[in-house]
Amino acid sequence: MRNINERYVTEAFDEEGQLTQFDIKTPADFNFAYDVVDDIAVADPDRRAMVWCNPEGEEHVFTFADMKRWSDKTANFLADCGIGRGDFVMVILRRHYQFWFVMLALQKLGAVAVPATFMLKEHDLTYRLQGADIKAIIATSAGDIADTVDAVVAECPSVEALILVNPAGAGLTPQAADGTWLLPEDEPAGPALSGPAGICAAPAVRAGWRDFNSEVRAASAAFARRETAAADPMLMYFSSGTSGNPKMVLHDSGYALAHLITAKHWHNVRPDGLHFTIADTGWGKAVWGKFFGQWLMEAAVLTYDFDRYNPADILDLIGRYGVTTLCCPPTMYRMMTEVNVDEFDLASLEYCTTAGEALNPDLFDFWREHTGLTIYEGFGQTETPLTVGNLTNSTPRPGSMGKPVPLYDMRILREDGTECDTGETGEICIGINPHPAGIMMEYYRNPEKTAEAMHDGWYHTGDTAWRDEEGNY
After folding, report:
1. Pick from 388, 373, 464: which is nearest to 426 by CA?
2. Which of 27, 156, 220, 386 has an alpha carbon 20 to 30 Å from 200's alpha carbon atom?
3. The pLDDT value given to residue 245
4. For residue 122, is it within any domain?
């Protein structure tokens, strides 16, 4: 174990073991792919990075050495596609393991990853491609997103490369009435892909698109480190706004390091554990729980590449793979109450967290009654990592999302900028003088919206809360 996280953070704790200081140090040339993943790959190559499976029965265990090898091959392929430093690349890959290869490869190239959901409609996709001058699209062949791309790409002249990934499954393989998978004899899928020879084994043939799997398998695994800077744009998400077009939320490499607070002190991951966050990779929550912080802690993640959420399947996976820490939104926990939770082996589970919506106190109580575990709630946005949370060694108050994390100076402010009294509702604001790690760089190409959100020394989240006598939000 490398204790890599300790290179980038200064911490302090009180006598009860609660975190009181958490300061991020971001080296000028920090690059998550090189300085975290490749570092572990060289020094501790057999350390488990990801356990990946799908409903069809395919399963792979990737070490950090595997992640380095496949991301290096992917970087060489993407470079051959003309992708380099500063290019914006849309990534629509569900929960396929190729997502991780791509994200690491784009960081190695200094390109900007733009993850997106496979549920985009034509007008949604057109807005995104034109708004960010997307240079390449890497999309799944599962579902109909490739059809959507083909329908609009002629209107988006910035797009120079279309790259298709065949997942050979993703829970979309047809099933017979008895539940057996209907696998074509001439097409690898499901368990037929299991084993080292099966990585990226299924080709994708579509006019106008390059075949990711075949070309990555053929690419060289030798890739030399390229010059990148921590202050460069690294990742961009389209926020899910309540009105108008979504804003483009731009992050630099400090965002990756800031997720140490998410994984270490909220998810409570440990290097020999297995963390399971269920989010799809099209949403920011995926890198909260399936990527940055967990690998900074040298912990493995479980990824289940499914199509439709089934609570029984998720509960079964916990026991089958020995999941130690779990994070999913309250809605998913609530659906788990509709099956007999007591029938599943949850003995390995040590810690549970939730975010995305308010946690109902009844659900909080149900989970503790049936598993013996507390659900630790947290809060953050596409623009941030975890900013408020019930951290380790705290005692959650049902109905509260916790206290501000010590990485940020956070206040609840009135419209006139003065601080609210205890019990008074106001806007959650985060100090940005100096600009802390993890808070977005800007709303890309939207200086007016950026100025609305960032002014007078504060990032205005637009979300409201009130504070109780103990400091809980």
Report:
1. 464
2. 156
3. 84
4. yes
Work out the number of other CB atoms within 10 angstroms of the CB of residue 396.
18
Q: In angstroms, what CA-CA distances link 219 with 76, 199, 470?
A: 6, 13, 57
Q: Look at the chain and report how many structural domains it folds into.
A: 1
Say if CB 440 and CB 383 are below 8 A apart.
Answer: yes
Sort residue 255 into left (φ over 0), alpha (ψ -120 to 50) or beta: alpha
Q: What per-residue confidence (pLDDT) applies to 191?
A: 72
Could you report how far apart the first and last alpha carbons of the chain are, in Å? Answer: 36
- Mean pLDDT computed over every residue of the chain: 94
Q: Closest Cα partner for 115 from 234, 31, 235, 33?
A: 235
| Phi, psi values for residue 388, rounded to 5° | -130, 135
Tell me whether residue 9 is in a domain. yes
Q: How many CB atoms lie within 10 A of CB 155?
A: 12
Could you tell me how far CA 100 lies from the centroid of its own chain?
10
Range of the domain at 64: 4-408
The answer to the question of residue 37 being in a domain is yes
Interval 21-46 mean pLDDT? 97
124: Cβ contacts below 8 Å, ≥ 6 apart: none
CB 458 within 8 A of CB 429: yes
Indicate which CATH number applies to the domain containing 390.
3.40.50.12780
**Residue 105 phi, psi dihedral angles, 5° rounding:** -65, -40
Query: What tokens were used for 26?
Result: 């971001």
Average pLDDT for 434-448? 97
Helix, strand, coil abundance in the chain, percent, nearest 5: 30, 25, 45
Per residue in 386-400, pLDDT (tens digit) is 999 999 999 998 888
* pLDDT for the residue numbered 242: 58
What would the two tokens of residue 90 be?
Answer: 């849309």
Q: Is residue 450 part of a domain?
A: no
The residue-averaged pLDDT of 139-156 equals 97
Predicted TM-score (pTM) of this structure? 0.96
Locate all alpha helices (DSSP H) within 230-381, ordered by sequence.
254-265, 285-289, 292-296, 311-321, 330-336, 361-371
